[in-house]
Fold LysR family transcriptional regulator.
Amino acid sequence: MSQIGIRHLHAFIEVARSGSFTRAAEHLHLTQSALTATIKQLEQDAGLTLFDRTTRRVVLSAEGERFMPVAERMVSDFNAALDDLRARAELQQGRVSLAGSPSVITRLVPGALVEFRASYPSIQIDIRDESAGSLEQRVLNNEVDFAIAGNHSQQPELSYSPLLRDRYGLVVPSDHPLAQSSQLRWQQLPEDDLLLLSGDTGIRAQLERFSKNGLIPIELERVQIEVSNPAGMAALISKRLGVSLLPALAADTHSFDGLAFIPLDAPVIEREICIITRKGRALSPAAAALLEQVRLYLEQVRLPKWVTSV
């Protein structure tokens, strides 16, 4: 196997340009014997003489003349690749891809991006609004660097780092008889049609687990309409097609303006929002910087009522 590497190419180019082993050794900060050995190894590996040596000067042979532009291009490509790696490490360029639940993408990510973009304007950002099951799969498939959402299925290959907790409540039209209530017990849920998010969402999966375990008195057979995202749910509630159960953050977007959120207790049920990453996979410098900016933003911003940082 060839032992020729980038140092051999550097040595070859420097000798060719200077026309002297002595001057080339000085420029490369090598001893002349070390440089001579490096060139000899390159020629032996190539099976060709690359330099014609005289008592006064070292010049490229015909084969050396042909190899010179190739060597220069290889060194240039290598240096460009190194510069690219350094730039990414220094956050001068790169790409971050993240996924999040609709409420996270709407309510938390934009504020964090303002500061991040001001600090790192050259970083490209890809944001995906996904259901819980889909975004976990994207992290597993390395399609996104990380996700921010609830723990949907406790995948063994994923790491879930708690970030926020938000309390479940009842969402009703602002003129609903219960709209002015400060809180309700789960047993006091009204007889209105119950609207729920679809089964592929983390919120629905969590409610079904609580119901199956007997923690909350939800009769899933009451559900008349399902919808895949909170914004669609808000539109249905506004048209008085029913009421819904949602965590506080999901009910704190502009889509829910004009609707009332009533926290539920006995028991108090909370959703845990996590940073989801793949175990054993280190985040890129850009992704780590964005994640740190999200954490800093949450420390500084005033969170909605019934939402707490962990």
Observations:
- The mean pLDDT is 91.
- Residues 62-89 form the longest helix (28 residues).
- The chain is about 40% helix and 25% strand.
